Amino acid sequence: MTSITLDPVGVVRSPITDRKGAPRQPDEGAPSATIHFDPRVRQALDGLRVGDRIVVLTWLDRAARDVQRVHPRGRTDRPALGVFCTRSPDRPNPIGVHEVEVTAVRDLEVDVRALEAIDGTPVLDVKAVLPPDVRDR
Amino acid sequence: MTSITLDPVGVVRSPITDRKGAPRQPDEGAPSATIHFDPRVRQALDGLRVGDRIVVLTWLDRAARDVQRVHPRGRTDRPALGVFCTRSPDRPNPIGVHEVEVTAVRDLEVDVRALEAIDGTPVLDVKAVLPPDVRDR
Question: From the candidates B3, B5, B6, which should be mutated to test the interface with A, based on the most A CB atoms within 10 A?
Fold first, then answer.
């Protein structure tokens, strides 16, 4: 299969500076963070508003890409599982999926609540979270 | 920002053969599909079972990467929005996010229900959907 090349559209700025500081799930205490977008995607942000819920896709650049099986949460007393059955950051293509709420928009900077990503993590894409009754975007 | 290179971990096999045939949302009639995984990620599938809910990340290779603003659902009577506020497949890094249910597992082939992706779409990653009360994966 052909390789794919991506250029990040932005970067996460966060008080989390290493994997130890990153909570495993957003309701386990992830802090607010700011996404700094590249000027070349300025138009793609048109219409983004405070209160919007978005899915942020990140490139987990501190993850191990050669790991295929993990002990869930590092508990070696439990059987190892394939990473496709887990949320482990370690996996062949470590893409993070984060559903967050927009709390501020300042030109190319967007603040979001409870993003579990390390400072400097590249952002690959952003999508709307559509409520079940809204199907027109 | 540095470019990132990905190798797909699999490919979607689906009766959908072009964008016209692809429903916009999974509950609008997406058919069942089969993901064919690359042998090199065999171990990453360990433990995947029928009935599991998974998030499949795809590379929407038929999308337009130079589009930053769209009229939602092609309705030119409505204002254009930045693609980051939409679910449009057209966007700088067209990564699809699909939550689906596993209906069969045969070695490197995994059947899933209601996947809105065109035949031949590369698969980048697969993750568990964890119910709110399960936090141990």
Answer: B6
